[in-house]
Amino acid sequence: MIAVLQRVKWARVEVAGRPVGEIGPGLLALVGVAAGDDEQHAQALADKTVHLRIFPDAQHHMNRSLLDVGGAILAVSQFTLLADCRKGRRPSFTDAAPPDRANVLFERYVARLREHNLPVATGQFQAMMDVSLCNDGPVTIVLNSREWVK
Fold it and tell me: What CATH number is given to the structural domain containing 84?
């Protein structure tokens, strides 16, 4: 699984002009599920997300995690993170998990986040969404669970 984490002052997702998820300070997580990912990937990615020390301490060093600062998370499923652009000009999405499997693993990721007692909001799976945010820093981190889960 892949996640693009953006440290935010606030983030919001709308579907058809209606808000479906909104947070204050914390992380926006854009999450893609690859073919072959499993529940271990979802759990490991969620744990890395909440423990990653990317929030500033009193000396302005990135030394605090989402748990440390009591932040919230907005998780948005985004299969386009699995785009293969090596050939031609049109991305291929054959590396993305099928929608039914991707939804199960995305929901497992969200459930694991909630196990950490954080405020968690989500987008709507397979919907066209408008995502708004105010980057904080900006700080943007890319995580790929395949780099540490075998």
Answer: 3.50.80.10
